[in-house]
Write a structure and sequence with these properties.
Keywords: Membrane, Transmembrane, Transmembrane helix. The chain has about 260 residues and is mainly α. The protein is built from 8 helices and no strands.
């Protein structure tokens, strides 16, 4: 498993790390160009060009991460490399998890780099910015991070499931993966709206008042309870997507 993670990290890092370095460098140059009288240099043309370059690279960071996420799974397990990957002494579960873990890590790394570039572009990195620390907020921050990680895994595994379903088609498999993504995501949204509407209609005025009093009595525990529910829902969604992907790769795989 560790060797799979190492191999996957190297493959993704080769494409993404240069972009991460580029966006930090361009953000730093923009910060210098927009300081004091520098924006007036050559009628502001260099500053305008670097600003447009920053926007382009900023978008490219997230687009490249998404493309690599899809490409690494499709080519490694369902493309030409699949013959080699499935001869390794590792299980399908390990293959899926190794790619999902690195994909989630790259997503968070992309967000972190984008955030740092914004700090550089606006104020520069000031240690005082991170000096504020409230110990009481630590549980909420940790729970929020856990929920974000589970959401990221659910999103990545959902994409993997759509790619695997698209691979079941005889022709235009990648196109069918996009079709499955559109169909399933639309279905999930519709089902979610119906559940919310049904729940709202089923709750009477007196029941709503009782629920409000219950939440008020829980105090800060209400927040923990809501985050716990969100984590369970995200984990369940990730588990369903993983199970579907694993079943297809185990029983329906066709590399021809």
């Amino acid at each position: 498993m560790l060797k799979l993670l190492k191999y996957e990290w190297k493959a993704c890092a080769r494409a993404c790390l240069p972009l991460y370095g580029a966006i930090i460098l361009v953000a730093l140059i923009n910060h210098l160009l927009y300081s004091e009288a520098v924006p007036e240099l050559l009628f502001g043309i260099p500053a305008a060009i670097m600003s447009m370059l920053y926007v382009v690279i900023f978008a490219a960071v997230f687009v490249a991460t998404a493309v690599i996420l899809v490409q690494r799974f499709y080519k490694s397990l369902l493309g030409g490399e699949g013959y080699l990957m499935f001869t390794l002494p590792v299980s399908v579960t390990q293959h899926i998890f190794s790619k999902a873990i690195i994909a989630v890590a790259m997503c968070f790394l992309s967000c972190l780099v984008a955030f740092l570039s914004i700090l550089l572009l606006s104020h520069g990195i000031n240690p005082a910015t991170f000096s504020f620390f409230d110990p009481a907020a630590v549980p909420y921050v940790l729970e929020g991070l856990l929920w974000l990680v589970l959401c990221a895994f659910a999103a990545v595994l959902f994409i993997y499931l759509c790619i695997a379903l698209g691979h079941l088609a005889k022709k235009h498999r990648l196109l069918m993966a996009f079709v499955w993504y559109f169909v399933l995501s639309t279905a999930v949204q519709i089902i979610g709206m119906l559940v919310l509407m049904a729940g709202g209609n089923a709750v009477s005025e007196s029941m709503a008042r009782s629920i409000g009093q219950f939440w008020a009595s829980m105090g800060s525990g209400a927040v923990h309870f809501v985050v716990l529910i969100l984590c369970l829902v995200s984990a369940a969604a990730a588990a369903v997507c993983f199970a579907g992907t694993r079943y297809i790769l185990t029983h329906k795989l066709n590399l021809e």
